[in-house]
């Protein structure tokens, strides 16, 4: 039965004492075209950095210094297919839209070390504030900082961690997975690039004229020009005390949730994501207050590559995800059967047809807005970053660098990745809400 995640009995190291040994910029071997690169309306609203950590155990054939040198060479080689990584984001002075200035200004590459071993770092699943030392910080605070920085930090045991900070305007999770696979391939001596990225972002350009054919309650209008707005509400991180907990769902827990919903629903193809999201939605809504008439809207991303007509290329490089939503009152979530919530999550994803997606993109052209809901479920569960094969093996664990935000709940895999089939649910809430969330989580998981 699902439970509260238990971290190591040993206290986490609070300071990894990371020493920066070298820092440089890497450039494409060939000069890219000098035409500014168009960014879609989806790309436009994702101007912030996403940071991921990829931990590797020691491999006697590839000590950290050798692995780092291979990664440095691979990064330069892979930029033949990703030369825009060395560019910089700029607002177009005529349209106000963000675009990529392709003039090569460099991708950051940092070598670092710590006096600790990977074993001493301890639990990799439970986020440690010291992990922030494993990746370059503060890139979004400056106008002329790299869009991508890779930091290799070696442990004294021979293991190392690869920390990557990438501006989200460049890639979504799927295209970042392709990038990792391509980067890893170039670290081998003779492997070809496995996925040639499609860079035609105009495939997701708004129609002319825009045709907003749906109401889009999941989106919030802005008053400021796109790219120049303040931090969007869904990513707001207010200064307040938050309790932070991880809830673990085993494969049998997920199977039980799916079976419970399928037994009563007409939809017999219940996915693990829909069942887990419905459980979280219920608990989050009812942990807040007791107003039964209050509506709670949950947001979650849907990949639109295969939903468009014609479909996008599977190798589309950019952001090809849109925000789906499900809405219900707290009374409906509390009294209604579980399958109703699962069906509502499924219906939100099914709503994302070609026309709905095009309408949402056109809405962004007209209103310049952001996702709008009570909270967002951000899923890293099935992305499979730790399935990528490097010369020194697969990562022991890959995960996002976690920040505590009460309006974002993260799903990420257990150590062992997708193959483990379990999922961790990371929640940050004020203490009283967390107490209620935990009680409801265990209650609903038991089927009470």
From TrEMBL:
Belongs to the plant acyltransferase family. PANTHER family: ACYLTRANSFERASE GLAUCE (PTHR31642:SF189), TRICHOTHECENE 3-O-ACETYLTRANSFERASE (PTHR31642). This is Omega-hydroxypalmitate O-feruloyl transferase. Pfam families: Transferase. It comes from Salvia splendens (Scarlet sage). InterPro entries: CAT-like_dom_sf, Plant_Fungal_Acyltransferase. GO terms for molecular function: acyltransferase activity, transferring groups other than amino-acyl groups.
């Amino acid at each position: 039965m699902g439970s509260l995640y238990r971290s190591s009995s040993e206290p986490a190291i609070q300071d990894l004492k990371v020493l920066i040994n070298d820092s440089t910029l890497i450039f494409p071997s060939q000069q890219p075209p000098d035409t500014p690169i168009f960014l879609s309306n989806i790309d436009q609203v994702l101007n912030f950095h996403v940071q991921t950590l990829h931990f590797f155990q020691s491999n006697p054939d590839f000590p950290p210094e050798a692995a780092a040198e291979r990664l440095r060479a691979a990064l330069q080689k892979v930029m033949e297919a990703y030369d825009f990584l060395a560019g910089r984001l700029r607002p177009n002075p005529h349209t106000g839209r963000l675009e990529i200035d392709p003039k090569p200004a460099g991708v950051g590459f940092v070598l670092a070390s710590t006096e600790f071993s990977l074993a001493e770092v301890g639990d990799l699943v439970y986020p440690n504030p010291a992990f922030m030392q494993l990746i370059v910080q503060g890139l979004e605070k400056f106008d002329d900082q790299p869009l991508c920085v890779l930091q290799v930090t070696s442990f004294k045991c021979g293991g190392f961690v690869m920390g990557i900070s990438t501006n989200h305007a460049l890639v979504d999770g799927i295209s970042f997975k392709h990038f990792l696979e391509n980067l890893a391939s170039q670290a081998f001596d003779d492997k070809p690039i496995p996925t040639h990225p499609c860079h035609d972002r105009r495939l997701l350009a708004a129609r002319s004229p825009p045709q907003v054919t749906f109401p889009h309650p999941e989106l919030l209008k802005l008053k400021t020009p796109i790219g120049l707005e303040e931090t969007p509400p869904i990513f707001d991180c207010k200064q307040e005390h938050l309790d932070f907990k991880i809830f673990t769902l085993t494969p049998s827990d997920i199977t039980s949730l799916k079976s419970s919903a399928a037994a009563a629903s007409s939809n017999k193809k219940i996915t693990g994501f829909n069942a887990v999201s419905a459980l979280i939605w219920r608990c989050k809504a009812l942990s807040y207050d007791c107003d039964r008439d209050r509506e709670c809207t949950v947001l979650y991303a849907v990949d639109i590559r295969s939903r468009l007509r014609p479909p996008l290329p599977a190798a589309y490089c950019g952001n090809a995800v849109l925000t789906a939503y499900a809405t219900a009152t707290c009374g409906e979530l509390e009294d209604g059967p579980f399958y109703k919530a699962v069906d509502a999550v499924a219906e939100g994803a099914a709503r994302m047809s070609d026309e709905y997606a095009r309408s949402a993109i056109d809405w962004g052209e007209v209103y310049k807005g952001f996702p709008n809901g009570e909270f967002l479920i951000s899923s890293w569960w099935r992305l499979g970053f730790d399935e990528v094969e490097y010369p020194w093996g697969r990562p022991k664990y890959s995960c996002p660098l976690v920040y505590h935000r009460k309006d974002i709940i993260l799903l990420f895999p257990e150590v062992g990745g997708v193959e483990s089939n379990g999922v961790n649910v990371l929640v940050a809430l004020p203490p009283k809400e967390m107490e209620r969330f935990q009680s409801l989580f265990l209650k609903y998981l038991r089927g009470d």
